[in-house]
Amino acid sequence: VPERIGRPEGLRRARKRIAVKVSGEVTLSSGPDGDGLDPTDWPSFRALCHDALDEALDYLEGARDRPVWTPVPEETRTALNKPLPLEGEGPAAVRAAIVRHILPFATGNTHPRFFGWVHGTGTPGNLLADLYGSAMNANLGGRDHAPMYVERQVMAWCREIFSFPETSGGLLVVGTSAATLLAMAAARDAALGDRARKAGLQDRLHSLVGYASAEAHECVAKAFQVLGLGRSALRLVPVDERFRIDVAALRSMIAEDRRSGFEPFCVIGSAGTVNSAAVDPLAELATVCESEELWFHVDGAFGALAILSSAHESLLAGIERADSLAFDFHKWMHVQYDAGCVLVRDESTLRRAFGARPDYLMHAARGLAGGDLWPAEIGLDLSRGFRALRVWATLKEHGTRAIGAAIARNCDQATLLGRLVEQTADLELLAPVSLNIVCFRFRPSETEPVDLDQLNLDIVADVQESGIAAPSTTRIDGVIAIRVNLTNHRTRDEDLEILLDSVLEFGRRRIAPSSVPEGA
Ligand SMILES: *Cc1c(COP(=O)(O)O)cnc(C)c1O
Q1: How far is the CA of 176 from the centre of ligand 1 (A)?
Q2: How far is the CA of 217 from the centre of ligand 1 (A)?
């Protein structure tokens, strides 16, 4: 490495200019007031930001005191349907519009009774990370700067959490959908080798097939589609009575495909399915993959982090044998959106799939273009935001013990809710509670026959519109279920009772002979 030379004297002293000899007609202009898009009045901008910070903190401290969700009013729709601004209105107008039209009408996942889909709650602590992250505006495509070391630190911690080997690596991405796409690309290229990387699938020499349970998330089929393998190349394996992949069926499907001339290349296990949080027997899947020489991928979007709870980690045994793992920090680690992760057992598999170093991204032994691992070479994105700061800050502020304890509490709450459902007349549990999701329905015993699917869809909409709670719906064994997902560190046990009371209340109102439900 050539020796660094010191900074020129002129730069050491603030405001002292380097003398430039300008010839002829060239004049140096300082630009519009010298400072582009910066505030024209820093003191008032500063005051505005201080007030905004207080407003954001009030919003979080008072999370419990608002309705969970409020339908987006006409006024907001109008305010967000305006012509392209040619002249700016300044920062105060931006703040006023956010506070009036947007802030009160958000998804509601900051609320303790948000139980829909799989949403993380976020933490007040991440405001800090986002504030500084925004000030730095770092681009983590590569180069040598402290934010890169933050992401590397996060990946090293992930390796430790999941007991992955030293050769493992990966990167932070938008979420599990993106992580799954990268992992499947690595698996495909590992199966087909470099020749296929160039020719793609155009040589028609291969017919790769992969396997996941019928309960696997849609993002897996989507990845197969985008990678040109086709959705039908993802074989859906039946599940047992606890919604886990049937390993014997998997084995015979692999054998059958081989006999028919297909090339099995990977198996996708679910560590927490989206419908009922079922965890596939990961160790058994790892064994199948080892004996069949297949890539083993785990979709652990939310469930993988249950490894942080000592009461639940044994459910995930075998995850450490995966070739790749996709999971989210923005779900059960409550990192602010968005932050997902792809972790591969052998980092070179991602590099083989995505590594390229064009001239304009040349590395250097020193200077800003230094640093060994440029994430752009192991993934799809070149420009990348600093989501690693949020993850790092969450782990540093709370530690894995407190995060694991919050995860365990959610699982205990799911068990409790499942029991309450079983003990309540007119409620029916539709799936065993494996982790943190409870699927049930309102099923009144003493009434005229009703369309239970429509009734339960209506109840969920009623509960959401009341602002009391926000469960979502799915279908379990063909019937509509009220689905309660617990990835919420603010939920207290009493919130579950409030939810059940409102389900029963709306359900009974809807079947009462005299009732004329709103909107009917
Ligand atoms: C949420 C989820 C996904 C998709 O993750 P995103 O971060 O939303 O892209 C995939 N699989 C499972 C099991 C999920 O719960």
Answers
A1: 5
A2: 7
pLDDT per residue as tens digits for the range 86-106: 999 999 999 999 999 999 999
Candidate of 173, 176, 305 to mutate for ligand 1, largest count of ligand atoms within 8 Å of Cβ: 176
Contact (Cβ atoms closer than 8 angstroms) between residue 470 and residue 69: yes
Phi, psi dihedrals of residue 491, rounded to the nearest 5°: -65, 135
Asked whether the predicted pLDDT for residue 372 surpasses 90, the reply is no
pTM of model > 0.90? yes
Residue 318's region, left for phi above 0, alpha for psi from -120 to 50, else beta, is: left
Q: Read off the amino acid at residue 486.
A: L
State the DSSP string of 144-212: SSHHHHHHHHHHHHHHHHTT--TT-EEEEES-HHHHHHHHHHHHHHHHHHHHHHHHTTTT----EEEEE
The pLDDT tens digits for 216-241 are 999 999 999 999 999 999 999 999 99
Ligand 1 pocket, CB under 6 A: 118, 175-177, 217, 219, 272, 274, 299, 301-302, 328, 340
- Categorize the per-residue pLDDT at 16 as very low, low, confident or very high, splitting at 50, 70 and 90: very low
